[in-house]
Amino acid sequence: MGEKKSFKFLIEGGRATAGPPIGPSLGPLGVNLPMVVAKINELTKDYAGMRVPVEVIIDVDTKEFEVKVGIPTTSALIIKELGAEKGSGATGHEFIGSLTMEQVVRIAKIKRPQLLAKTLKAAVKEILGTCVSMGVLVEGKHPKEVIKEVDEGLWDHLLSEEAGEGGE
């Protein structure tokens, strides 16, 4: 096993090219750039329209490579679910859209490996917190209201984890 080099890029899902930043970084190592780019695009196609962190690890001797895809930021996932362009410039007064609770739960499940949250409920509250700072309503309500509802158990039917949670 030869020396390995690791490169990190932030690329738009499914839109990597052999141009900058990837080509100039990897080209000098003599790897098969079209193969690397194709692999990145294949692994990130579900994140179209979002910037995704990608790591390319290259074995300098054999030119073999592996691609690891990170998870887009919570705000990128929220914007994708909304189909919006970007967050509100005047959060608190101006809202850029509304997510359903199902969408919030979906984002929480994608982000969960990176969150400190111990339970899905806690993860959902983290996502709701990001909605507050981005000016995104949930179920047409202010996310702070929805956080209260989560605490009161109104959303438990969506937040029950797979068995083994001990009847929370």
What labels describe this entry?
168 residues; alpha+beta; Ribosomal protein L11, N-terminal domain; Arc Repressor Mutant, subunit A; 3-stranded antiparallel beta sheet; two-stranded parallel ribbon; 7 helices; disordered C terminus
Write the layout of secondary structure elements.
Layout: E1 4-12, H1 22-26, H2 33-44, E2 51-59, E3 65-69, H3 74-82, E4 97-99, H4 101-111, H5 120-134, E5 136-138, H6 143-151, H7 156-159
Parallel strand pairs: 4-5
Antiparallel strand pairs: 1-2, 2-3
Helix pairs in contact: 3-4, 4-5, 5-6
What does this structure look like?
The chain is α+β, with helices and mostly antiparallel strands and 168 residues long. It contains seven helices and five strands; from the N terminus they run βααββαβααβαα. The strands form two sheets. The protein has a three-stranded antiparallel beta sheet with strand order 1-2-3. It has a two-stranded parallel sheet with strand order 4-5. β2 and β3 (65-69) form a beta hairpin. Residues 163-168 have low confidence and may be disordered.
